[in-house]
Design brief:
The protein has 389 residues and is mostly helical. Among the domains are: 75 residues, no CATH class; 70 residues, no CATH class. The chain has 14 helices and no strands. Helix 3 packs antiparallel against helix 4. The longest helix is centred in the first third of the chain and has 25 residues.
């Protein structure tokens, strides 16, 4: 199912973990070199600026090839030509993957250009046969399929985000195509789907079948939490319902009922997520909860302004700075499972499993420098230590 060589991906994961362990002082430089020699990576992964340059060159080359194809056929059947260009881009993507390209800029651009070509061709074929709402419905279904396949096969993070966005668009298009306007069941359906998506991602992370999709699953989980929060967020609900006509006359605005529930959701959900992130030691949830709390200030000032915007921004900013100061002082004292010091993996948390693995590498305990426990002294190949380790 995965287009990239899974052995190379496994070696890449091992190298990433080992480099992080050395930065944290859990293994020595000699142990790191020994592991890296056992798990070489032959994938072509250029630095950011080279990746950016290769991506730009790929856009130019791909667009030029598509332009030549359109000129040669006088663009008589553009929808078919777009689909041909999409298939050609995906075929070229597979070729470059065989040549060991992995997030090199070339494979990224070819993937998304191919999807855009296929989108355009599909929508042009259906443009004259369906109305606007049905067209949006077909568009979202096509997006779910294409971006879902792209995320699963090519491990593309942007495709994973577009996959979640396409689900939300599908829900909206479904209600617009059947009822003609959004309603409370739309919010309930979105909340239910996002809850199921979050649960599925959390259950799948760490499983053997999803070992190469863990980053994508976490990203989809975070996107699902944002969409779940926005399901009943006061700002979104007010924008959807208060601006919807009752009788077809734009002057007739549907009144927004149950405002207490939407305000309670807008305020309580971030606070609950903040508590949960602290309890479960989840830094991503912690960051999301802080951003959601910021949205509370924004929505409150938008609907119920109590002072000038610049004074409100100054007050909220000083409040957040003060809270951050005391939180940082608290974390520096190691009174929490969180630590303020940033670890090599960027989480800033204590990783028990890393310590356990390092202990296994060193043979006894966590001290890898004790006599007779040097990592490079034994047979490491095959996923375990030999008898002379």
């Amino acid at each position: 199912m995965i287009a990239y060589n899974t052995t190379e991906l496994h070696h890449l994961q091992v190298q990433f973990n080992v480099i992080g362990w050395e930065d944290e002082g859990l293994i020595t430089a000699e142990e790191k070199r020994s592991i890296l020699d056992k798990y070489p990576v032959k994938l072509f992964m250029p630095q950011f600026f080279l990746r950016l340059g290769l991506g730009i060159l790929t856009v130019i080359a791909s667009s030029a090839a598509a332009g030549i194809l359109f000129i040669a056929n006088d663009a008589r059947v553009p929808e078919a030509l777009f689909i041909i260009c999409g298939i050609g881009s995906i075929a070229a993507l597979e070729i470059f993957i065989k040549k060991k390209h992995y997030r090199s800029g070339v494979d990224d651009i070819l993937l998304h250009q191919g999807i855009l070509y296929l989108f355009t061709g599909t929508m042009m074929m259906l443009a004259d046969d369906v109305n606007d709402n049905a067209e949006l419905l077909v568009f979202s279904i096509t997006a779910i399929i294409l971006y879902g396949i792209a995320a699963l096969r090519y491990l593309d993070r942007l495709a994973a985000l577009f996959f979640v966005a396409a689900i939300v668009v599908f829900e909206y298009a479904l209600f617009m195509n059947t009822l003609g306007r959004p309603s409370v069941p739309l919010l309930l359906m979105n909340a239910s789907i996002m809850t199921a998506l979050i649960f599925l991602c959390r259950k799948s992370v760490g499983k053997h079948f999803s070992r190469f999709h863990s980053d994508l699953l976490r990203l989809i989980e975070l996107a699902g939490i944002i969409c779940l929060y926005m399901s009943f967020h006061y700002l979104l609900v007010a924008g959807l319902f208060e601006l919807q006509p009752i009788t077809g006359n734009r002057a007739d605005l549907a009144p927004l009922s149950q405002t207490w529930f939407y305000w309670a959701w807008t305020i309580i959900f971030p606070l609950g997520l903040l508590w949960y992130s602290t309890w479960k030691v989840n830094r991503d949830y912690l960051r999301l909860s802080v951003l959601m709390i910021l949205s509370i200030f924004y929505v409150k000032h938008l609907f119920y302004p109590s002072m000038a915007p610049e004074w409100a921004a100054l007050l909220y900013g000083l409040l957040l700075i003060a809270v951050s100061y005391f939180v940082i002082r608290y974390l520096r004292k190691d009174k929490s499972k969180f630590t303020y010091e940033v670890k090599a993996d960027g989480t800033g948390m204590n990783q028990v499993e890393q310590l356990a693995v390092t202990a296994a590498f060193s043979g006894t305990g966590l001290s890898s420098s004790e006599k007779g426990t040097q990592f490079h002294g034994g047979n490491f190949g095959g996923g375990g230590a030999g008898s002379d380790y």
